[in-house]
Amino acid sequence: MAKNGLAGGLHLQKYFLSKNLKKDLPSSIVVFLVALPLCLGIALASGAPLFAGLLTGIIGGIIAGSASGSQLSVAGPAAGLTVIVLTAITKLGSYETFLLSIVIAGVFQIILGLIKAGTIGNYFPSAVIEGMLAAIGLILILKQFPHAVGFDADFEGDETFMQVDKDNTFSGILTALSKINYGAVIISLVSLALMIYWPKIKKVAIVPAPLLVVLSGVLLSLLFAGTDIALRDKQFVQIPVVDGFNSVLGLFKSPNFSAIGNKEVWITAFTIAVIASLETLLSLEAVDKIDPIKRISPTNRELVAQGAGNIISGMLGGLPMTAVIVRSSANVNAGARTKTSAVLHGFWLLLSFLFIPGIINLIPLSCLAAILLVTGYKLARLSLFTHMWHKGLNQFIPFVVTIVAVLLTDLLIGVGIGMMVGIFYILRTNLRNPYFYHIDCKGDKEVIRIKLAEEVSFLNKAAIQVTLTSLPAESHVIIDGSNSRYIDVDVLETIHNYRHNAFTKGIIVELYQIKDRYDVPAFKELIYKENNQVD
């Protein structure tokens, strides 16, 4: 019987692996095609060797992807850290000393995961996360437009408003419009048509549209060669071409451990750990929102996985990594089901670097831009704005503020501004809804019943205090806690103080089912445990 059960379990496991692999395999190719130029572009913008960006993508996929508890998140070099990396390399004097900071940052992240600091991710307002996703979508559209029209002076990995080439997002588009390459435009339009219409043809939809986009882009670029609309070298993917095993080994670098006593190394490490962890938690929350199956990723385990990835990246000569929303959203939109997709994309990066760099370098950036343009549209679709408007101004305003702030600054600053606005509306809502106010008649006398909400936090203290002090003299007040699972100790103190002093106004105060002390509700403890598993 036990053998039959074991055999049945293995058969079921193989079935689900096979079923998911049908979606994870093609989606991993899509993520690989999106990640490849981003890895190289971020390395370029960071002032680091191009190989460092590629190495970070490989480690982020294989190591962090395997260790992560998230099924759809994809890790790699982070555009949000480019300025920090560029400044740190200059300040620390050498790239090897900077690598030591990455290793220490990874250790910090593992510690943050073990002490369950990942719970902060549960407190990001949903309107802000939706705004961040829409902003990322708009950034993808705005930043990929120059590549789509064949202007490739911009840094591929630069997602901030003010770019390292002294241009900004909008001036970059205007510059691109004055230097259009019509060969790139044709490739982009064909690619967009394939991305939009190919999946609608059921008989051929088994072939992933992005794969067809890449193949058609390569063929068209070869067809245009030698004509007036031929693509320039800069308009293709460019990965380092290695010749032999020793040539590969020569690309790796190791940290300078003799700088362990340098104060700047530790400051840089702490800065990277905090910012990388925040970006990871934001990305994780955002990916969970667009997961079709609506799974919840363990935040603390993700911090440990990212920490391990950063330690290995620093030891081998890579860049700091985070969970990245651009690659992750491309993964979701490509139909991925499990983290097999993220792990496989790391292997594709490795294999392409080792065996087919020449073929990879035939891919036009304009066809990859088309893939990202479609991804951006899905994240910032018009129906999302309509949906947030219908949810009310308390959701719509933080949503729009986050979008505008991210577009005009960068991801972390923009989300920080959105968080402040979102928290304002949360506090405003909480202050207005701590209780139900009802007036009954008892003979000739009015009885004021104040029924407290299910949860009454310290945020509700001011509203309750204002209401109690404004009640008329000579009244009968019943404060009803029968519906309350939790009442904060500060609110309890306010209620008891009011009852103690109410006799001076001739007010009778009756407390109904209000305890002297409330513990954290059982359901909150359960949620806390589920969201804070490291394993």
Outline the structure in words.
- A hairpin with a 2-residue loop joins strand 3 (435-442) and strand 4 (445-452).
- With 535 residues, this protein is an alpha/beta fold.
- It has a four-stranded mixed beta sheet with strand order 3-4-6-8, covered by helices on one side. Strands 1-2 form a two-stranded antiparallel sheet. A two-stranded parallel ribbon has the order 5-7.
- The chain contains 21 helices and eight strands.
- The protein is elongated, with a radius of gyration of 28 Å.
- The two termini are 31 Å apart.
Question: What are its keywords?
Answer:
21 helices, 7% strand, two-stranded antiparallel sheet, 535 residues, elongated, disordered C terminus, four-stranded mixed beta sheet, alpha/beta, 8 strands
Reading side by side through the largest sheet, how are the strands ordered?
A: 3-4-6-8
Mean pLDDT over the full residue set: 84
C-alpha end-to-end distance: 31 Å
How much of the sequence lies in strands comes to 5-15%
Would you report the number of β strands? 8
Tell me the helix content. Answer: 55-70%
Order of helices and strands: HHEHHHHHHHHHEHHHHHHHEEEHEEHEH
Give the biggest beta sheet. Answer: 4 strands, mixed
Q: What characteristic shape results from the CA principal axes? A: elongated
Strand-pairing-aware structural class:
alpha/beta
**Low-confidence spans:** 8-13, 522-535
Report the total helices. 21
Radius of gyration: 28 Å
